[in-house]
Each structure stands twice: as C-alpha cells, then as structure tokens.
Write a structure and sequence with these properties.
By secondary structure, the chain is of the alpha/beta class. The chain has helices at 40-48, 61-64, 111-114, 132-146, 150-169, 175-204, 227-236, 238-244, 272-294, 311-324; strands at 6-15, 18-24, 30-33, 74-81, 84-93, 96-101, 104-105, 117-120, 215-220, 255-260, 265-266, 299-302, 328-332, 346-349.
C-alpha cells in the first residue's frame, strides 16, 4: 500500500439513499456511473464527510439521515496516507457530528491534517455569478487544504463575530464585552486574512496544463493582516455597526476575484464554458499544490464533471488526475464518459438499490 492518500474501504450506514454500503478500493481513480437517482452524488458526499465541515452539500444532519428510519448516519473509512493506514469514523450526534480516528474521539478540525479533500459540483458552476459568501467559502476550503490550521482560526473568528453581532442586534452597549470580542476577532481575523492571501499566492505559483485556462486570483476588501488594524477598525465602527445591527468590516466581508489571464476578462463576465474551465483549473492547481506541500495528492470529488466537457478537455482532465496520482471519485450517468480512463480507474456501477 503506497503513501498516497486513498480510501481503501468505505462503509456507510443510513447515509441518504444508502441504507448499507460497503466496498473496497485499490487507490486508483473511481469512475462511478448509473442513472439519475442511483446514489452517485450521495456516495461522494459521504467521502466528503472525511473532511471538516458539513460536506459538499453543506447539509444538516437531519437532511443526511436516511428516511423513513431516521436513526442517524455513519461513515467509516480506512484511509492510507504518508503516515500509514488510519481508520476514520464519523456520524451524526445530535445536531452535530462525532469523529473518531483510530477509535479515539477527535475534533473535526483535525481531519484537515489527515485527509485533504477537494471537490467540484454542478452547484459550483455559479460560483462567479453568485454572492460573495460562496466565493469566500470556496477560498476558505482551498486555504484549509493548504494550511490545515486555517480551520481553527476561521471557527474562532466566526464565533466571536456571531457574539458581537448579537450584542449589536440587542443594542448592548457594554464596552468591556465589545473590547473582549474585538480582541478575539482581531487575533483570529488577522490569521484568516494572512492564510487566505498565502493560499492565493501559493496557487499562483502552480503550473496548469494548457487545456485549462489560468486564473489570476485576488482578494477584494481591506487588508487585515495586522491584528491591531482590525481591532481599531472594529472599535471605531461600533456606532455605525450598532445602527446596522451587524459588523460591517472585517474578513467576513472579503470577496475572491478571478480573471481569465489570457483574455484579461473577469470570471463573472466569461462564458459558462470558460467559467467551468476556470474552476477545473483552480481545483487542479489546488490539488497539485497539496501534493507538492504535503507529499500526497488530496482526494478529488468530481461530480458530473465529465458530462460538461468536450472530448479533448475530458481527456486532459483524466490525464491530469492520473499524473497527479490522485484518487479522484468521478460521477456520471454513463460509463462511456470515462472511456479515456480505461484500466487506470476502478469502475463502480450503482443501480439505486441499497
């Protein structure tokens, strides 16, 4: 078993349409095909739960648990990596979820160190045309894959932000409470900003194949790398924030920008096909950066990606995945979509029975 990151055994219990699922995998890319409703996306969503957060659909536990039983869901995986074979188990526990690594209860954020996971879904095709929140979320997942400690900083900042916003909404004017929360926001927020900028810089140094366009990335918003600057801005803005009922300045207001480098056109103004190609380019660049920095490529979850590419770009994508040595979990309605992979992939047909 190599040091590359790969899922070698996956077992699901009451996870969406899968009442029970268990398979072994050999580390090659996985080509998952079947009719609509067969459970393809549900399967790779289960793999996404091996990373911190709420998975590729950002679903609540109550939405994941299989109906009508609704007894809670569970995902178990044997995962190999540079540090050897690990057993990871996660499942619903009340409103949250429990994580065990090698049988020991472990914080979710620790999964970022163990299993970097990247994904691309059809819903992300609207990334460049939707609101800034989705782009921040995309940037933060990218950053987390390159800087595992980013998760703890983001959680700390969000927790302090929520508390400050509660004070603002309730018109609380206790200066001591504000100063304490703003100190936390300054410490965590500066780290979040530095991490985001470092991730953008890291991706800019990755070479992307000619089949996919290069995206020049940037960050819209005030530079908050210095803790003191953010604390001062929050303190000076209290009156305005009190009137608005929320915090109007900080890293939570940043936005990711992207430009199609060869054309000098902002991603939001590109064609649908160009926007898709830019996304794939970023995910591949991210995967290559993870492979270079951590010694193993991440797990790649590519939902219905092949169906929206022409034959040349589809083949280029497969070549990149195989060249990286990544275990990519790819879904499509027909096996013909993955013909370019041949025996380089492990094939999995789903019928929806389960």
């Amino acid at each position: 078993m190599s040091g590359d990151l790969a899922v070698h055994r996956l077992r699901l219990s009451h996870f969406r349409s899968h009442k029970k699922f268990e398979r072994e995998f050999d580390g090659r890319p996985v080509a998952i095909h079947g009719a609509n409703g067969a459970g393809k996306t549900n399967l790779i969503e289960a793999v996404s739960m091996l990373s911190p957060g709420r998975g590729l659909r950002r679903a609540r536990n109550t939405d994941i648990s299989r109906l009508p039983e609704d007894i809670g869901w569970k995902v178990f995986a044997e995962v190999s990596g540079p540090d050897g074979l690990r057993e990871i188990e996660t499942g619903s526990e009340g409103a949250g979820r429990r994580v065990l690594v090698d049988g020991k209860v472990t914080p979710q954020v620790a999964l970022a160190d163990l299993v970097p996971v990247l994904w691309l879904t059809p819903a992300m095709d609207r990334l460049w045309t939707e609101g800034a929140a989705e782009r921040r979320r995309f940037l933060d997942r990218t950053t987390l894959s390159l800087i595992p400690g980013h998760g703890a900083a983001a959680v700390g900042y969000d927790r302090a932000l929520r508390e400050r916003n509660r004070l603002l909404k309730d018109q609380v004017r206790d200066r001591g409470w504000f100063e304490a929360l703003e100190a936390q926001m300054g410490r965590f927020g500066a780290e979040v900003s530095r991490n985001r900028l470092a991730a953008i810089g890291r991706l800019s140094r990755v070479t992307v194949v000619d089949a996919f366009p290069v995206a020049e990335l940037g960050l819209y918003g005030t530079a908050w790398e210095k803790e003191a600057d953010l604390v001062e801005a929050l303190r000076d803005g209290r009156a305005r924030d009190m009137a608005a009922g929320r915090s109007l300045r900080g890293p939570h207001r940043d936005d990711l920008s992207a430009v199609y480098a060869a054309k000098g056109v902002e991603a939001r103004l590109c064609s649908t096909g160009e926007q898709k190609a830019l996304l794939i380019s970023l995910v591949l660049a991210n995967a290559r950066a993870v492979a270079e920095d951590f010694g193993a490529p991440p797990l790649l979850l590519l939902d219905e990606v092949a169906a929206h590419l022409d034959a040349d770009r589809r083949l280029a994508l497969f070549e990149q995945v195989c060249d990286l040595g990544a275990q990519a979990w790819m879904t499509g309605t027909g096996a013909e979509l993955f013909e370019g992979l041949g025996d380089r992939a492990q094939w999995l047909a789903l019928s929806g029975e389960g």
